[in-house]
Amino acid sequence: MNELIRFDQVSYRYPGGQDVLSDVSFSIAQGEMVYVTGPSGAGKTTLLRLIALLCRATRGQVVVMGQNLSVLKPRRIPEFRQRIGLVFQNFNLLYDRTVFDNVALPLVIRGYTYADIGRRVRAALDAVGLLGKERALPLTLSGGEQQRVGIARAIVTKPALILADEPTGNLDPEMALEVMRGFQRFNEAGVTVMIATHAIDLIEAIPQRNIHLEHGHVTDKRPTAASQLREHMHHGLG
Amino acid sequence: MALVEAGMERPSLPARWAQDHLRVLFFSLGKIGRAPIAAAFTALVIGIALALPAGLYVATQNLADVAYGWQSSLQISLYLKDGVSAERGAALARELDALPGVGEIDYISRERSLKEFREKSGFGEALDLLDDNPLPAVIAVTPAPQQTQDQIEALVAKLAAKPEVELAKLDREWLDRLYAMLAIVERSVGILAVLLGVAVLVIVGNTIRLDIESRREEIEVMKLIGAPDRFIRRPFLYTGFWYGLGGGLLAWVLVSVAIALLTAPSAELAADYDSPLGLTGLSPAAGLGLVAAGIVLGWVGALVTVSRRLASIQPK
User: Fold this and answer.
1) Four-residue CA torsion sign, A160, A46, B217, A170
2) Is there a single domain that holds both residue A150 and residue A198?
């Protein structure tokens, strides 16, 4: 299978700070769906940021879609980032634009004709079940709907890779499962999906490959559910 | 829908470029339209800053015109040599009358000079003490109207070369002083224009800076989804363009209104001085130049600010 992402002994350190990731190596093939898990501060977000070139590795090599990111010139970054669909915990929508304009933005940046843009935006909104909400402003929508707008914006350019950072962090369980099922559908259609998440129940509901981070290292441990955590505490008390 | 698709069709690069510029042109206008009062004040400040040097420029041009008009009312006094007879003097006056560039001729013989001097000066008794009439004969030459300074100086030189003429004198010291003052005023207008041009850059820059700060999150989101800097920069440049265009047009209007208000009093003044000249305003070319200056200053002010600010905004 084609390799889409490769990390070779990658470390990242905040300027003047401590290591967030150290010596991380893994490889993700095209068409995979992967969870990135681990406690807060373990480096999940940093790992996704490295792939989207929102920051650069301090040591080691990150190769994404055949591109060695350490040699990519800063002015080439926008072009590179256009090939990735990004989904965020806080949605990162433009709140003074309609749903349609938000989803259309990546296409406007690339310079498609308005006829094409209209067609693709409606197809993307249809894929997330928001076809009737084109003219709405994001703040009039529920959190789950806003996140689906964010997802529609990420898939409207039909990227080969979607990176989602805590996409369900602000959603109720029902919405969260619906959003995860959406990612699963995109994955089944051939998109490589990486999701950083805390949501153990969702991981258990939709089992996929899991990269688990602790203190900046990849480990074989698996995330602990809150229910088990309570048992641990009881043992501790008893 | 098929989710992975290689090579989506896009228009050619120039077509994409034109399409996006057109989109941003109207997008930025719409954005200004949503806060028309604030935008109008910015444009007004720019307009006043541009109108000041433009108005002063028009004023100096009119002053120069007036001074130019006065040139023709100068007199050239030709003092004739003592040996030249009264008949020869009168004949010379008639000859000179026929020369191009000469308007009016008045021959004042030595006797007439003496008579006028006696009547007007009150020193008649003093002259009686002298044996001879000490006053020379004079031909007073008024140049034909609408001549340049160079033409008049050439005329003076030609008249001075006549063998009968002892001395040709153009009474123009005060006019030279006026020209010198006009040159200083013109230079000052130039300096003022540069200073106010810088002020316009600062005004536009500051307005755009506030605009950028209020859209910081939007810029971060744009960078996150792969918008190149030139795409993010474009709406701000067009905002600067609209401010400059509005300011330039306002400046043109302000100068035109000021001229309209000054036309009536200046016509009275011109009538007093027997001058046919009215006020000249901004020519269409100068007006368009003023608008163009506004647009360039607005665009450059926005470009400098947005280029400096954009680098400092990075997605979190």
Assistant:
1) positive
2) no
